[in-house]
Design a protein that fits this description.
This protein is an alpha+beta fold and 764 residues long. 48% of the residues lie in helices and 17% in strands. It has 5 domains: 146 residues, Globin-like (Orthogonal Bundle); 185 residues, Signal transduction histidine kinase, dimerisation/phosphotransfer (DHp) domain (Helix Hairpins), CATH 1.10.287.130; 142 residues, Heat Shock Protein 90, CATH 3.30.565.10; 122 residues, Rossmann fold, CATH 3.40.50.2300; 96 residues, Orthogonal Bundle (Arc Repressor Mutant, subunit A). Strand 13, helix 18 and strand 14 form a beta-alpha-beta unit. Helix 3 packs antiparallel against helix 4, helix 13 crosses helix 14 and helix 15 packs antiparallel against helix 17. One of its GO terms (cellular component) is plasma membrane.
Length: 764
């Protein structure tokens, strides 16, 4: 089947005479015959040329569509039609007459094709015909479009300049920041779309709407330009301006238009960059720096007082008599306690500024805790000449569930503050029960609390999650201790009240009263007399601070059999390499010259010779270490400096000592005939053969022997050996079991693996 374009050529050739007649009728009807040839041959030639050009157009390789880049004045497809156009042009035929006649030809062709009955693809043929006449019209205008060479060059230059201008303004509009162009005197000429969006909240697409928006709001934008230029014409500056989104800060750069030949109107380009976030960050940093400076100044004042007392008492002790030494030692203890309290307040303020403390309640002997608290504050009270009294209600229970550390900090801060401001009549710490609340009352005879401090202390509990305010501006000492009192009290589930007191200040701390289900012995009671060694064990201390290490060594020498000291990981590694079985446990600091306490703990855990030997961290940076995910598996305990001898002894006994034995039982653990363990010496007797067990192996055997024939899970074994819960992937228990199995070879006892649970000790 023929294509539509082939059918169109055939059809037009057949209909040439009819087309000539149709064109003549249209020309006559529209008044064109008076100005054209009356000879039919001229009209027939026109139809012939149209058909020839259509045939060439249909067979040519170029796309059949209008193309603004095509030069229709030289397009070979329309050469025959252009000859007629040039003939008309040279004969003086006006452009409108020539174009009108060609338009009539187009109408005649379309009408004639529509009148052909039942012709297939009529719509397709009409579409092809319209495409041809669209391009042919461009070619027929060529003679009238031709210009002298000078005029053509000028037109091309104008078009090029227009493109360059549009390109520059396109760059201006594409900038994300506002841009203004003004005269040299500051009168607004132009503003980009970003300026409309920033200062007017408008986004105008399209040149016409954009220019209309600019004209309607020119006065508003002129005011913005005036504010910018009024701030000065420096090379670089930042100013705050009112925008549609509120106050914003902009970095301003002013650029005069570059025109060395003075051919253009002088103007100024204002480039703006929104730096609000950066500027606010700078302001916050400056405020934080100022706050920190004030904070350090206040803390320096708080610390220098007790430090002066420490240095003075230490100097006087050199030549003091025995009677004077006791008083000076009391002063040293008081000053050291004050320094420690101040440091604890600083650390608490840092921790609690953006996160509330998490209480850990335990069963606490209430009367003993309060008596100890008053005893520690009594030295300061006696030196200041202020009586300090403890008033306890008779209905107080023996034990309550409290977080001892948090409660002591709360009451200690309140008592120290009351002693500081009392006029000498005395401070009272009273404790009573009111309904379901345990009420602590601290009363003094001072000037009372300023209104701003009262407002902060009685802030509702819902504000506990808000950051602590800046304490350095308070006139009531540093204000730091009282702010921490409020935060800790709210964390404990309690509240503060300020009863009226005409003679001073009274502060009530009201906490929920919770009783323990079963009374427990006081964990703080000393288990062993301080003058006797706590353990028959050896310790390696790893600490690079020579002064701090002297104090720790002095305490350890009273608690264990022997102590060695290393100042670096290298020294500690050398000691472990040469004497792997000498040390029963390790105490390490966090920061070391060639690593950290974490590095040493990892080394111990990876050494099979060190399995079961606990590592205790003694550092002033325990909070930082506690955030490490592996801290719980690497360290048996995290001990925070400063630590006294009693607390250190309790920690070692709990985490590094052998399992406690009941005083009413013998020191011999009998497992089977011919198999028994001497627990003090850790000697295992196996049918006359003796194996000396490590402390960890001893604890493992005692744990398994407590339930012979019954399975022991890994968690229970880990608690007995290391004092911590077993976690998946911890191989400590498995390695110790393997070592104890080798020790038990040749005996009647065997350690059997219970898959998925733990181990069982069997006999026989």
């Amino acid at each position: 089947m023929d294509r539509p374009d082939e059918r169109l050529k055939t059809l037009l050739h057949q209909e040439s005479n009819a087309l000539v007649q149709a064109i003549l009728q249209l020309a006559l009807a529209h008044g064109f015959t008076d100005q054209t040839s009356s000879m039919r041959a001229a009209w027939a030639e026109a139809v012939e040329r149209i058909n020839e050009s259509l045939s060439t157009w249909l067979t040519h390789a170029r796309p059949r569509q209008l193309d603004g880049r095509n030069d229709y004045r030289a397009d070979p497809r329309f050469e025959r039609l252009r000859e007629i156009a040039w003939r008309h042009y040279e004969a003086g035929v006006p452009l409108e007459l020539h174009h009108g006649l060609f338009t009539l030809c187009r109408q005649a062709y379309r009408q004639h094709l529509r009148q052909i009955p039942q012709h297939p693809d009529a719509d397709t043929l009409l579409g092809v015909l319209d495409d041809f006449f669209d391009e042919a019209t461009q070619a027929m205008l060529a003679p009238w479009a031709m210009r002298p060479p000078g005029e053509a060059a000028l037109a091309e230059s104008i078009r090029r300049l227009t493109r360059e201008r549009d390109q520059y303004f396109g760059v201006l509009e594409s900038l994300s920041g506002p841009v203004f162009i003004t005269t040299e005197e500051g009168r607004l000429q132009h503003a980009n779309d970003a300026a409309l969006q920033s200062f007017l909240g408008l986004s105008e697409a399209g040149a016409l709407r954009y220019r209309l928006a600019l004209q309607h709001h020119r006065d508003t934008l002129q005011a913005v330009v005036d504010d910018i230029l009024a701030a000065g014409r420096q090379e670089l500056h930042a100013i705050w301006l009112d925008t549609h989104a509120g106050r914003r800060c902009f970095d301003i750069r002013l650029r005069p238009l570059e025109d060395i030949a003075s051919k253009l109107d002088r103007c100024l380009i204002i480039l703006m960059n929104d730096v609000t976030g950066h500027q606010r960050a700078i302001e916050r940093a400056r405020q934080a720096e100022h706050t920190m400076s004030m904070f350090l100044a206040a803390m320096s004042h708080e610390i220098r007082g007790p430090l002066h007392s420490v240095l003075g008492a230490a100097e006087l002790l050199r030549d003091a008599s025995l009677a004077e030494a006791e008083s000076l030692l009391d002063l040293l203890g008081l000053s050291a306690g004050a320094l420690n309290a101040t440091l604890e307040n600083v650390l608490s303020f840092s921790r609690f500024r953006h996160q509330a403390p998490q209480p850990r309640p335990t069963a606490v002997p209430l009367r003993k805790m309060l008596a100890d608290l008053v005893r520690t504050q009594d030295v300061q009270a006696r030196l200041q000449g202020v009586p300090l009294q403890l008033q306890l209600s008779a209905e107080l229970p023996e034990q309550v569930m409290l977080d001892r550390s948090l409660v002591q900090q709360v009451l200690g801060n309140l008592v120290r503050n009351a002693l500081r401001h009392d006029d000498g009549q005395g401070v009272t710490l009273g404790v009573q029960i009111e309904g379901s609340e345990l009420v602590f009352i601290v009363t003094d005879h001072g000037p009372g609390l300023p209104p701003d401090i009262q407002a902060q202390l009685t802030r509702p509990a819902s504000a506990a999650s808000t950051p602590l305010p800046d304490p350095v501006d308070n006139s009531h000492s540093s204000g730091l201790g009282l702010l921490i009192v409020r935060r800790m009290t709210q964390a404990l589930g309690g509240r503060l009240q300020l009863p009226a007191n005409a003679n001073g200040a009274s502060i009530e701390v009201r906490l929920p009263l919770v009783l323990p289900e079963i009374a427990t012995p006081d964990a703080d009671s000393p288990v062993h007399p301080p003058e006797a060694p706590l353990l028959d064990q050896s310790c390696l201390l790893l600490d690079d601070d020579p002064i701090g290490a002297l104090g720790t060594i002095a305490m350890l020498e009273r608690l264990v059999r022997s102590v060695d000291h290393a100042t670096s990981l290298t020294q500690a590694s050398a000691l472990l390499q040469t004497q792997p079985d000498v040390y029963d446990f390790f105490i390490v600091d966090t920061r070391l010259p060639d690593g950290s306490g974490l590095d040493f703990a990892r080394q111990v855990r990876q050494d099979p010779r060190m399995v079961g030997k606990p590592v205790l961290l003694l550092s002033a940076n325990t909070e930082q270490v506690r955030q490490q995910p592996e801290a719980g598996t690497l360290f048996a305990a995290l001990l925070e400096k400063p630590l006294d001898a009693t607390a250190l002894a309790q920690a070692i006994r709990r985490h590094a000592g052998p399992p406690p034995s009941s005083p009413d039982k013998e020191d011999t653990l009998s497992i089977a005939n011919g198999l028994w363990l001497d627990t003090p010496t850790r000697r295992l007797h196996i049918d006359g053969r003796i194996e000396t067990l490590s402390p960890a192996e001893t604890r493992l055997l005692v744990c398994l022997a407590a339930a012979i024939g019954k399975p022991c899970d890994r968690t229970r074994i880990s608690e007995a050996i290391c004092g911590r819960d077993w976690v998946y992937g911890d191989r400590t228990v498995d390695v110790l079991v393997s070592r104890l199995r080798r020790r038990l070879r040749g005996s009647v006892a065997r350690i059997v693996t219970v898959h998925g649970l733990g181990y069982t000790l069997t006999v026989g």
